[in-house]
């Protein structure tokens, strides 16, 4: 039996509360399917670590987790003590870049028992993936200020789109669309306003589409695309987007399905040269941290995606099924956390899901 | 009686169908309130003009409309013949910049009789403004390509935020918030990911807020903010955003209220050194152009905003009330266009609103 080494990083805030529940579900799945997972916990990539060491991670962070098979990540950020751009660029965004996790994959699915803010939608109606570019684009660290502190102050930041960076994310997205029954891909653009990089993105989509004659594709400007997410979420299958647009769409999609607190994401290096990282879409949520009421489902769903990534599709599906089973019982029956209208604790809900396994 | 000279530019597609209905309502309001409006129609800023002249506008466009009191604009763009970034940067975006219309003001309001895609919301629940920066930010024309056509190809585009540009839009938004009963301002940011320009935006918001101690303000990253638009649209009052974020939020907001086809926008030069421009949020809609079924309400609502801008608040309110009256009659009674579930033509709906005045 191969042992899989998982680096566990709880991070900040509710990350510390939901990660143990994710591990509980993973343990249950590992037992049931006979999978050998070894968990190594790390305290860095957190604002607590920063408070002690003046940096988010030790200098040798890459050596310490670079050899693991995956990273199981909670959340990072505690703006009261460390500005977000410092904590994020010093940890999560470093992982994404230095481990070349160029795919950020985020499912949007209407789940049973979860009230959607949209009228007249039911489970099965909405089921798509956002495929987000995760290493370049609008998230660059190139730029700066001139005439600082004066009336003439002016601030620049560069967006950077490389052929390699664009093509590889498009290829991943077209491959995924090709494997799905609907074989439909939607590209997010804004080439009418962002007139240099976005027309380039469109060009590369058109070029890549030629290799996938069986995939139907369309494109929408990001403004109207957000409108379509609200009005016609049933029309999407695979949505591919730049770093910033993907960031927006992968919060908006789960918001439309009512699942923002429970949505997972996978930061993937498809070539497996580096560990991939699995983290819920939600953040560290300082407002509810420490109360034991955070919803652990996003973290548990991350475990499902991680199992799939490690080659255990059946185990991953079982974890997802356990989540759905508990949710389907509905308010009054399932131990739901307050964000879902229940009174249960993080642990109650985590245990119920592990038990359902 | 002062005469107000209005430059009328119908543009492309459904612009040509809805602008006459906007003028019909303006005529009715002018008669009723004794306002002297003179309409001068121009055929430029359209793809038809481009087909004849190889450019979107004549060289002396600024002389021809720069002396008018306002521009009443339909829609521009016909991607089959002219790429969007060419048609837009050659017309609409030129107006915004060269007439220094640095405020793009867009109301989001749940209207009677308009079905919202959101569950359990009623008129009055949602009523806020998006105040969008309209001249700089992510919409720059600075950037370019290197290693073109090769595997190493790389494309850059600069975002540019100036102290002057940021402060003046923030001032407009805080002033507006201060005049409204709720006195609440929300700033859209992404300072955790867009780590150079967006922290600067946040700094300026914080500095500006000091001059408005009676305005409550908060800020959200754009990803979660789009989620809040769907989940808690009732919480907003004035939302201020950069050019790109404002573009997104001002499509998403109307989508949440079901009014994307009927939402107006005002491109304002508050100092009145140049004409302001009033245009619906929707575009030229090639898919339905020429059929006479486009919804004219966005254009008519623009007329209401223009009247208010010209100093006729009462007349503007009367136009809006006429729209609400017709909408409130509801499907089956009001002559609604197909996008609203009716069978009426653009003209039928336009006439009904003019009559209601
Ligand atoms: C057509 C396009 C360039 C424009 C914009 O992005 O500003 C439009 O979407 C708008 O919102 O007015
Ligand atoms: C925390 C932040 C930098 C991050 C991002 O924008 O990528 C988050 O919003 C996400 O979506 O993972």
From TrEMBL, chains A, B:
Keywords: Manganese, Metal-binding, NAD, Oxidoreductase. PROSITE patterns: IDH_IMDH. Its cofactor is Mn(2+); Mg(2+). It catalyses: (R)-malate + NAD(+) = pyruvate + CO2 + NADH. The keyword Zinc-finger does not apply. GO terms for molecular function: D-malate dehydrogenase (decarboxylating) (NAD+) activity; magnesium ion binding; NAD binding. Residues 5-353 form the Isopropylmalate dehydrogenase-like domain. Its EC number is 1.1.1.83. It is an enzyme of class 1 (oxidoreductase). Belongs to the isocitrate and isopropylmalate dehydrogenases family. This is D-malate dehydrogenase (decarboxylating).
């Amino acid at each position: 039996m191969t042992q899989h080494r998982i680096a566990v990083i709880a991070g900040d805030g509710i990350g510390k509360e939901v990660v143990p529940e994710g591990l509980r579900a993973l343990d249950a799945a590992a037992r049931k399917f006979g999978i050998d997972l070894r968990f190594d916990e790390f305290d860095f990539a957190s604002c607590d670590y920063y408070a002690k060491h003046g940096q988010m991670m030790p200098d040798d962070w890459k050596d310490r987790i670079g050899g693991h098979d995956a990273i199981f990540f909670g959340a990072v950020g505690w703006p009261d003590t460390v500005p977000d751009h410092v904590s994020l660029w010093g940890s999560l965004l470093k992982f994404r870049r230095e481990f070349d996790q160029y795919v950020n994959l985020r499912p949007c699915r209407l789940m049973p028992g979860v009230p959607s803010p949209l009228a007249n939608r039911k489970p099965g109606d909405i089921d798509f993936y956002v495929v987000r570019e995760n290493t370049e684009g609008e998230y660059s660290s190139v730029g700066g200020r001139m005439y600082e502190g004066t009336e003439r102050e002016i601030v620049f930041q560069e967006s950077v789109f490389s052929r390699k960076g664009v093509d590889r994310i498009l290829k991943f997205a077209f491959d995924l669309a090709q494997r799905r029954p609907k074989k439909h891909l939607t590209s997010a653009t804004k080439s009418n306003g962002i007139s240099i990089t976005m027309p380039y993105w469109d060009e590369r989509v058109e070029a890549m589409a030629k290799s996938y004659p069986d995939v139907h594709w369309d494109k929408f400007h990001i403004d109207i695309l957000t409108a379509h997410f609200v009005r016609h979420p049933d029309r999407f299958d695979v949505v591919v987007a730049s770093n910033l647009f993907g960031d927006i769409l992968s919060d908006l999609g789960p918001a439309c399905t009512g699942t923002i607190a429970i949505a997972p994401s996978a930061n993937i290096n498809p070539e497996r040269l580096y560990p991939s990282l699995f983290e819920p879409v939600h953040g560290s949520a300082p407002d509810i941290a420490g109360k034991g009421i955070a919803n652990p489902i996003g973290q548990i769903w991350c475990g499902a995606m991680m199992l799939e990534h490690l080659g255990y599709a059946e185990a991953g599906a079982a974890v997802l099924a356990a989540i759905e089973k508990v949710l389907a019982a509905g308010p009054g029956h399932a131990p739901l956390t307050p964000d879902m209208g229940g009174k249960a604790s993080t642990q109650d809900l985590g245990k119920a899901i592990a038990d359902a396994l």
